[in-house]
């Protein structure tokens, strides 16, 4: 789901520095589309899939050299058709995984999926649809922003290091909140880290993010500076982060740490290395948002079951806003979720980038790195409850040991916590 962190954000300006009721917190949504108009950019051509039928997809894979079997193809995939309302795991996600097991070529399928991106604007549209269909990403943005605002409320110089800046949409509400802060706004500096591959969806380099956030900050009266770092998190070193003395430091890990290989994958253990590196910076707060699933070191069968249970709940929750046979639903699944599911189930070793851990394991890693919990405030909890009022009552919110768990029908799907 981390691919969708490139869009809109609810305006939480009043949330951070006042104490409104839950009803008052139900503020209008600031769309990323209007945020993007602060700086126009040109479109980008790509190589969209000719259609969403799995037969043509496997034919395409075969023409690229992957050993794909076509025997009984229609019979094996028909029960997973998007038109079959008995299957919550609809569309391309389930079908691709069925093909994965039939052909033993999951790694090839995953690589082929990565080569079948839509155009940049189309991808943004699909991610926008997913963002609106479920509250998981708004939950992550708002909870992290609330923790950061609380941690820097008395600071004059604030430096935010975002380990997955994407489109920069998370910081719209925080910049507005800081602009409205009693006593005047602080000077804000954001270091935005992002995998260079994300420039495709962004339709340009990280300088576009800096320009848009800079114009927004100017409108809000917030002194602002942006530094973009187009590199993978495994390449991050302290000297690349530009930390300065006298700044209050906030570090943001939004659905990104599970991509870091740990000791079970490489001797470098970038997952724990990155946490130790951040601890050396003595940050005021570190925010962590992650999917609540246990797939990192699990063998195939338990990992398969865990993945299916997790994503079945996700897809079922999407049903509330988006019908399973809706054309855009199929596009959303194919371009925003399918690759995650295929990678989780079909890939091993360094090829498996999706390596989720439950919050209990993240707690152990943070404690070993020297961090202490920074409990989320009651105002953050109230804001999330207000956010959920515009969604189904089947979403559940639980506070446990200072962390928030957002789930579907009491099954936790995503968690948010903070450390210092």
TrEMBL record:
A motif (VHIID) lies at residues 158-162. Residues 87-103 have a biased composition (Polar residues). Keywords: Transcription, Transcription regulation. GO terms for molecular function: DNA-binding transcription factor activity; sequence-specific DNA binding. Residues 40-103 are annotated as: Disordered. Residues 346-420 are annotated as: SAW. It comes from the Eukaryota. GO terms for cellular component: nucleus. GO terms for biological process: regulation of DNA-templated transcription. Residues 208-240 are annotated as: Leucine repeat II (LRII). Belongs to the GRAS family. This is BnaC06g03750D protein. It comes from Brassica napus. The lineage of its organism: Eukaryota, Viridiplantae, Streptophyta, Embryophyta, Tracheophyta.
């Amino acid at each position: 789901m981390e691919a969708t962190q490139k869009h809109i954000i609810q305006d939480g300006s009043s949330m951070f520095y006042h104490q409104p009721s839950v009803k008052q917190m139900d503020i209008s949504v600031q769309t990323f589309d209007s945020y993007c108009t602060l700086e126009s950019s040109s479109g980008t051509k790509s190589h969209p899939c000719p259609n969403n039928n799995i037969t043509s997809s496997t034919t395409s894979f075969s023409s690229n050299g992957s050993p794909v079997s076509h025997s009984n193809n229609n019979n094996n995939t028909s029960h997973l058709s998007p038109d079959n309302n008995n299957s919550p795991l609809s569309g391309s996600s389930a079908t691709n995984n069925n093909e994965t097991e039939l052909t033993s070529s999951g790694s090839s399928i995953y690589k082929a999926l990565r080569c079948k991106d839509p155009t940049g604007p189309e991808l943004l549209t699909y991610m926008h649809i997913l963002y609106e269909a479920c509250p998981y990403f708004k939950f992550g943005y708002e909870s992290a922003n609330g923790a950061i605002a609380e941690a820097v409320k008395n600071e004059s110089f604030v430096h935010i290091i975002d380990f997955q800046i994407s489109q920069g949409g998370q910081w719209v509400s925080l910049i507005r909140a800081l602009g409205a802060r009693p006593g005047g706004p602080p000077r804000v500096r954001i270091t935005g880290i992002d995998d260079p591959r994300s420039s495709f969806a962004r339709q340009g380099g990280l300088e576009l993010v800096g320009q848009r956030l800079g114009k927004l900050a100017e409108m809000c009266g917030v002194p602002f500076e942006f530094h973009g770092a187009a590199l993978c998190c495994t390449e991050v070193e302290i000297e690349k982060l530009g930390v300065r003395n006298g700044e209050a430091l906030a570090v943001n890990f939004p659905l990104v740490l599970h991509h870091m290989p740990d000791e079970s994958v490489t001797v470098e253990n970038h997952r724990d290395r990155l946490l130790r590196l951040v601890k050396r910076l003595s940050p005021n707060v570190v925010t962590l948002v992650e999917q609540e699933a246990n797939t990192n070191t699990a063998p195939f069968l338990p990992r398969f079951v865990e993945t299916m249970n997790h994503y079945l709940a996700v897809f079922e929750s999407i049903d509330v806003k988006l019908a399973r046979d809706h054309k855009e639903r199929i596009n959303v699944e194919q371009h925003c979720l399918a690759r995650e599911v295929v990678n989780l189930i079909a890939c091993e070793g360094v090829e498996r980038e999706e390596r989720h851990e439950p919050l209990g394991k993240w707690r152990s890693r943070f404690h070993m790195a020297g961090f202490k919990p920074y409990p989320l405030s009651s105002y953050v909890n109230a804001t999330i409850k207000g956010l959920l009022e515009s969604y189904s009552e089947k979403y559940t919110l639980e506070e446990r040991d200072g962390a928030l768990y957002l789930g579907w029908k009491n099954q936790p799907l995503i968690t948010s916590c903070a450390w210092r």
